[in-house]
Amino acid sequence: MKKKKLPLVCWDSIKLLTVLFLLWGVCFGADAYPGSEYRKQLFDYDWKFKLGDYPDASLNTYDDADWRILDLPHDWSIEGTLDPENPMGNDGGYFPAGTGWYRKSFEIPSKHKGKKVGIYFEGVYMNSEVFINGKSVGIRPYGYSSFYYDLTPYLRYDDKNIIAVRVDNSQQKNCRWYTGTGIYRHVWLTAMNAVHIEHWGIAITTPEVSEERAVVQIKTILRNETSSDRQITLTTKLTKGNDEAGKGEIKVDLPANGIKEITQKIFVLYPALWSPETPHLYNAHFLVTEASDVIDSTTESFGIRTVTYSAEQGLFLNGKRIILNGGCLHHDNGCLGAAAYDRAEERKVELMKAAGFNAVRTSHNIPSEEFLHACDRLGLLVIDETFDGWRDSKNQYDYSILFDQWWQRDIESMVLRDRNHPSIFCWSIGNEVIERKKLEVVTTARKLADYVHKFDPSRPVTSALAAWDNDWEIYDPLAAVHEIVGYNYLLHRAPVDHQRVPSRVIMQTESYPRDAFANWSLVNGHDYIIGDFVWTAIDYLGESGIGRFYYAGESEGEHYQRNHYPWHGAYCGDIDLTGWRKPISHYRDLLYNPDKKLYLAVKEPDNYYGKVKETLWSVWPTWESWNWPGHEGKEIEVEIYSRYPKVRLYLNDKLIGEKFTGKEQQFKAVFPVSYEPGILKAVGVESEIEIEKTILQTAGKPVKIQLTADRTKIKANGQDLSFITVEILDKEGILEPNADNQLTFEVKGAGTIVAVGNADLKDTDSYIGYQRKAWKGRAIVVVKSTRKEGKIMLKVTSPGLVPATVSIRTSK
After folding, report:
1. How many domains does the chain have?
2. Is 435 a catalytic residue?
3. Where is the Glycosyl hydrolases family 2 sugar binding domain (predicted)?
């Protein structure tokens, strides 16, 4: 008879921590497969924090009574005030940085001596040093790497233990985008017996896959930290849902104080394959037993799929050609800053999938674990990227000062942590490295690529290459190091390069948004080009002003030429900070996904707000709006994106015109229209039959507020989120696209407001608070659950508008 699965334990107090160790003791004697939660428990709750540097804060005797109590993940930069004098500057979005400390206490009963207890950080930005009971157990400079420390030698049993973490982001500038500051990803406490599966010690690949059978190869590293030889049994069970898919068992002789890697091959009949369209996942459950005692167990998720590529045929996933419609993505979560809440990470993937993307590049750093889990679950292919640069600096305190000492450890932690994710099809080792013209760069690249392959020989390696002069061909030796060569903004060179190097497999790792059709044409016309990744999928904080359009009289030039405060973020995304898809997103989606057939938008008239000026990463301001007061009788351009052979445009039921929208027209028609309020209608026409229509309608005076929650049921775990879109409507329920009303937010019940915002990256109001202006008729508010079940009631008001409320239910 199987024992019931014990519930997860929350780290609310020392008392609960004691309970957890009791549960660990129970699990080691269980006759069923204990879940991985027994060896890794969330350690995010009830930390103490104080901004500033306090050298004695590592000591147990330090008085932290006046410190702030908070839960992780935590980014203190987003809590601060935007200021053009902040040292992060335009790269970091003018947010504050500095140094801060975190502390947390816990207790372990003496009967658990002998267990190996550790702490695992998914990410701390940056220059972290971790102390246990006043002893330093390690430093980690790179803010995007995950790391683990063994706490066992320093623990005090039946007494208070104190973890202290110093975080130092004071050396600026150290990055080219918004980083956030603090323990911004999860922390876990771990406990294992002296004989155990090594941390990150499981590697799962699927070297043989057919419709009838898949071979799942699993390499497991077992460690024995006792002074005697041990005879153990490793049992591995594969499941899909509640069904067993395969099983393997092997007896292992483990030498004293030694490690051994065990290879198992397990057959899965009629496998369900992972792909962006069908992201099927399996679980591998590992059980380590000695005689009849369970001494370790864990579970690893994986997918069954094959990836092949060649210049002759392109990229194939599970034997089918796939074209990568990719987007680059920075790690922040907009109004939440860098705080990597699981739901926020998942939502980014949802937004990209809804916009038609099938791939993402994690530019230019290692992503969070939950982001990759979401890519696995929802079906998004991933280029997992380590570094922005190598030895030569882009900023004074960037990774260049760490490279020689840390690159091996940071690559190792990335690959070992991430290698079992089926969504990852490629590793990236760099981006536009400054030293690209130096002879030694080829040696460096080869060392990095070989080191990646040491831990995962199953995936190709790339990096993003760029050249801003006519010396592109001199990079051929550097390109040859990569199995797939990343081009930044240089895909137009690919046909000539193919003649020179016909074996090269190419993907464009960054592209200008406005070049969507040209890049789509190249990707579709040449098998050796496997895809395009636009810069970027979603707007982000920092790199202030990239992608901006502006008006005459405002600060001139590109984002890299000078500061453009109050711009504090990037407007080059297909999706804005509220999650709204810009017209360019719909156009790109229509190119790569022909089932998306019709979209209507309006170009902002030049000189309506001012004379429009564009930048390299911008597109002309185009909106889902037929509200242009004061422009009556004047010409305005209407754009229709269409996969129909032709389209018709109507204004107030009068035919304006008909145009072809085939490939020759780039699937686009532009109509000059004399503006008058009313209903603008686009119709897709095939064989002279009007098949599909879409409209834009002039909104009247703003009357009311509408709230739309992305989820109305969330977990009562103190971390789950609901993203609530605020829209300002007229009496007929039509969005007023010019509304900029001041909004006030009020929350009651089992939740809190964790962030507010809009898509205006010139609005310097705080992202933390209870007020925010709408922009283009929209705003967003994010509520977070507490650890109590109940109801969250959010009310939004604005003078002169009918208020709105929304209810969110929280449960365990």
Report:
1. 5
2. no
3. 97-189
